Amino acid sequence: TGHPDTVEIKISGRVDSVNALEFHDRVMNIINAGMNKIIFDCVDFTYSSSRGMEAFLKFHKIVSASNGIIILFALTSKVRKIINLVEFDRFFKMFPTREEAYAHLGITVS
Questions:
Q1: Can you give the pTM of this predicted structure?
Q2: For an engineered disulfide with 20, which of 34, 51, 56, 89 has Cβ 3.0 to 4.6 Å away?
Q3: What is the side-by-side strand order in the sheet with 37-48?
Q4: What are the tens digits of pLDDT across the range 80-100?
C-alpha cells in the first residue's frame, strides 16, 4: 500500500475451528510487526464460526489500542449476516469495494 502501518489481507474460504488458530496467529504476527490498519479482502470469505469471530474481536481490541482500525470489504451476504447477527458490525468498518475501504483511510488505490 505504500503506508507503513497498513496491510491488506485476503481471506479465502472458511474461518472455523479447523483453521481459526492458524488465522489468528498469522494476523497477530502482522499486527505485532507494527501494522494497525488492517484491511481484509473478503470477496472469497465464505463463513466464520464463533472461533473466527473471536479472532476478529481480538484484532479489533489490539489495533484500537494503537488508534488502528479493522476494515472489511467485499463481504458476501452470508458473512455479513453472521457479523450483523453477533453485532460485530459496530466494531468494524465495512465497505462494498476495495477502493472505498482504502478511501476511508485517505488512500487512493488503482
A1: 0.93
A2: 51
A3: 6-15, 37-48, 69-73, 93-95
A4: 999 999 898 899 999 999 999
